[in-house]
Design a protein that fits this description.
single chain, 272 residues, alpha+beta, Immunoglobulin-like, 2 domains, six-stranded mixed beta sheet, five-stranded antiparallel beta sheet, 4 helices, 11 strands, 26% strand
């Protein structure tokens, strides 16, 4: 075999090895579930170890949260939950975040409007982002968890969330993980937010000189109801002022009439 042919073959083999190595460490924009973490463990339980040099090192500067979680679940009830990742590198590039979730019982599915952004893994008890859902501008997803039948006992949730810089490599990314349990019981309708991380959340930066009221915790309807309430108070104060000033007889001339009447009775020796 000519030496030039051998050199070409060696170069091709080398390129193939590089591609395989790169592919084993690159990000997973199309989602990830199952035993893909360090030591063949579940990603949702262990975390996104491929984004930290295969070290089990969650970063508490990244807050992973689940909102609208009930205090107890009713059997067979569907609950809409919001997953969100806060913190980590600045959003940019082709991806911003991803997650892997698992429950010990019940079924996970996409929330309304997020059918193309999340997907199940090997079964309905696992959920992850899709490639279309790997670049949400707010790093959040809406999902649905359907509770199991009566008598199932406590259900455990595991969630690993990854905040990425979008450069297609594991470097510069940061992740955290969260786990909690729910018990069957009387569902009062009250909900809570459960999170992991230091909770040091920086307010969103202003865009074009303003901050979105939704990001400030003031829903649009609540904002306008507050303004209407303030306007109503001002209107009542003005009405009372006009009533006190103009609400008497047209012959009313103020306190001076009352003083003159009192003096008149005093001169007569009467008691007013």
């Amino acid at each position: 075999m000519p030496a030039s042919t051998q050199r070409v073959r060696h170069i091709l083999v080398g390129l193939l090895v590089v591609v395989l190595i790169a592919g084993s460490t690159q990000a997973r924009p199309s989602g990830i579930t199952g035993d893909e973490a360090e030591g063949g463990t579940d990603v949702a339980k262990t975390g996104c170890t491929c984004h930290s040099g295969n070290a089990i090192a969650p970063d508490d500067s990244v807050t992973v949260l689940v909102a609208d979680v009930p205090y107890h679940f009713a059997p067979d009830q569907a609950y809409t939950l919001i997953l969100e990742i806060i913190g980590g590198p600045d959003i940019g590039g082709t991806a911003s975040a991803g997650f892997s979730m698992r429950v010990s019982d019940g079924m996970l599915s996409a929330g309304a409007g997020y059918e193309d952004m999340v997907q199940n893994g090997d079964d309905a008890m696992t959920l992850t982002h899709t490639e279309a859902g790997s670049n949400p501008t707010d790093r959040s997803w809406t999902i649905v968890w359907t509770a199991p039948a009566s008598g199932a006992g406590d259900v455990t949730f595991w969630l690993a969330g990854n905040s990425v810089n979008g450069d297609g490599s594991p470097g510069g990314d940061a992740w955290n993980r969260l786990s909690f349990s729910l018990g069957e019981g009387d569902d009062s309708g009250n909900t809570r937010t459960i999170f992991a991380g230091d909770g040091d959340v920086t307010p969103p930066a202003a865009e074009h000189g303003h901050v979105d009221l939704h990001h400030m915790g003031a829903p649009f309807r609540a904002h306008w109801l507050g303004l209407l309430g303030f306007g109503a108070v001002v209107a009542v104060i003005l009405f009372c002022g006009f009533f006190l000033r103009y609400g008497f007889s047209r012959h009313y001339e103020g306190r001076s009439n009352l003083v003159r009447l009192r003096m008149k009775h005093l001169r007569r020796g009467d008691q007013l």
